[in-house]
Amino acid sequence: LRFLPQLRTGEKIVRLMRERGPFLVLHLRYEMDMLAFSGCTEGCDDNELRLTKMRYAYPWWKEKVINSRKKRKSGKCPF
User: Fold this and answer.
1) Number of domains in the chain
2) How big is the CA angle at 22 (ends 16 and 6), to the nearest 5 degrees?
3) Is residue 4 part of a domain?
4) Given CB 3.0 to 4.6 Å as the disulfide criterion, which of 1, 2, 28, 40 pairs with 77?
5) What pLDDT, on a 0 to 100 scale, did the predictor assign at position 34?
6) Any stretches that span the bilayer, and where are they (predicted)?
């Protein structure tokens, strides 16, 4: 069997991480639904209305009105 170069590279990375000790994996999603539900829309002026509409489209989502500037100032927005 021959593996694609990407698989060999991934295998090498995993091996190196195991050899060199503890590590942390952090996966951040920066997608429209995540932006809509977190309220972290600072700098998304053109899309802010669309993101707000997305929040209101889900009746189970409790927090509808979100002040993104206030949220960012309080440290609750990771961006």
Assistant:
1) 1
2) 35
3) no
4) 40
5) 74
6) none
**List of the chain residues with pLDDT < 70:** 1, 29-30, 78-79
For residue 45, the enclosing domain spans 24-79
Report the alpha-carbon angle 47-42-56, nearest 5.
Answer: 50
Distances from the Cα of 11 to the Cα of 7, 17, 73, angstroms: 6, 10, 41
d(CA 44, CA 21): 39
Q: Where is 16: in which H helix or E strand?
A: helix 5-19
As given in the structure block, the two tokens for residue 28 are 């951040």
pLDDT at 39: 75
What is the Cα–Cα distance from 28 to 68, expressed in whole angstroms? 18
